[in-house]
Records
---
Amino acid sequence: MAKFHFSTKRLAISKANATMVAFVAIAAFIAVFSIVACRALLQQRSYQSRVITGKETAKRQLKDNLKSVEALNIAYQEFVGSSTNVLGGNPAGSGDKDGDNAKLVLDALPSDYDFPALASSLEKILTDANFTIESISGTDDEVAQAGTAVGPNPQPIPIPFEIAVSGNYESMQTLLSVLERSIRPIQIQTMTFTGTDTDISVSLTAQTFYQPAKNLNITSEVVK
């Protein structure tokens, strides 16, 4: 029976090689782990840096906003607290030219497309001026206008309408000035006169405006 003889030197070399391979494998694992860990730490550091920068930016913006709110509040109180309004009326009164400035501005340029309110306002103006109202017409487009896109800088949107009134020649001469005295801006587009000096009918097309409320666009940002 054959016998195998292994020298002590060969066994020592084999053992040393195995140990070296183990050390190389461990060193390679440690190196790869270190690279991956360093990369993850650098990514985390970069992310935290972006988060901190975003928070600082938001903090500065918030401070600026608080200062703006304070200044706006002071300006608003001065605007509504004046002894006479922009029309020269009494801020605490109930006449046509009375009311504080904030109310007058909202009446002049409301934030909603409200045709019934416009029709009531026109009816009162014309009735107080002793005109005989034949018709006040327009489109009650409030539902469709409710879907109008609103941004940070909304623009006035026209509300078209038509009115027909009658009266004598003298009263018709004051029609335009009566409409001009309305708190709401009115643009006359066409006018048609029919009748005689004692009985004149006037039909006109015109438009006034409303302006949607400003959207502050408060948003949140995800830092990636």
---
Amino acid sequence: MKRLATERNPVLEEGSGGMTWAPGRVLVIGSNSFTGAHLVDYLLRHTSSRVAGVSRSAEAEALFLPYRHGKAPDPDRFEFHRMDVNRDMERLAQLCEAFRPEAVVNFAAQGEVRNSWRWPVQWYETNCLGVVRVSEFLKDQPYLKRYVSISTPEVYGSQAVEEVREGRTYDPSTPYAVSKLAGDLHLGALYKRHGFPVVYTRAANLYGIHQQLYRIIPRTVIRLKLGQTIELHGRGEARRAFIHARDVADGTWRAITAGRSGEVYHLAPREGPRRIADVVRVICGMMGHDFEASVRRMDENFGQDAAYVLNADKARNELGWRPGVTFENGVEEVIRWVEDHWDTIRALPLDYVHQP
């Protein structure tokens, strides 16, 4: 997208390659989410910003909140508010008026691909109309200097071979991807019309400690410990590049402080994508289980993309971002996290629980 010079954002230098500005106050919408909670933790550990978190559900238990579980320093810099972008926009506007965030990061989304086919209206409500509600209010606020939209590579559709760069043509194939792209396009229209200070990030598959238990890596660890079979949808042939949540939090901060308005930044590891079957195979090896005896291959539902191969050179060159957690070290950390909290985790549901 073409950059507009705007008076509201004079201190963000184009092509800086490093931090040029740091917000004193950051609003994290979707702070209960896996990635949102890791960003809150990052902000409390590595910046001096005050942080306000907003989520539609009550603050999660410490097991799923790194900033609570790991006892991040100076917790008084964080405040949590329970609000829903679809139902509580008036209250959210009041919070913004009182807190006056210079940066807003929006993680709030309905994100399950398979379930987006079951409840598409709800996915459009949050991923598109929720974005419209929030951004239409924020576009008129003089205190806002940066809005980071947490997008998804699924807007590109399945990319089986070539690396995808930020200018790639969109080809979404699920209600989840279409609804996310619709929200992105509205933000782009606001940027072109009003100079809205939006930056987009699109990350490879995230993983790490504190992740929801139904995700592939923690779910595999838990099922192996329970002696249960692991279902490989699409026979495990889908390919994903996995990036650690702490690395994505660092990339998000760099997008806030050094990103160019209207631009998209990919966050992905240097190594290529892995088949889901190979991910499970690695975990089986680390935990001493036979792979073939531990899995059951199944057909895939329509609309699950085969592969995402993101090129992250732009984030590396413009933001100075580098992933620091290797896949093997990250997986070992998840295994230890599950084992250290086994008595609690084994009693929790392993399947996705839908919240309408």
---
Amino acid sequence: MNKSRRKTINEITEQLEEIKSSIETVRDEEQESFDNLPEGIQNGESGDKMNEAIDNLDSAMSSLEEACDYLTEAQN
């Protein structure tokens, strides 16, 4: 792979890392909101939806991390 394509991959990886960080911030805020709910609401439908959102945000972050790993490997 030439230098130009490596540079492009590095830029993409940096963008993905920034997106991952933004998702992590949202996930942390959602987790904090969930943690501050009364136990009855945590165990109800609203709590279930919040937990599902948190799980989905975790999955999105994992997928972005995996994409970054693949991009790094592609440069070798």
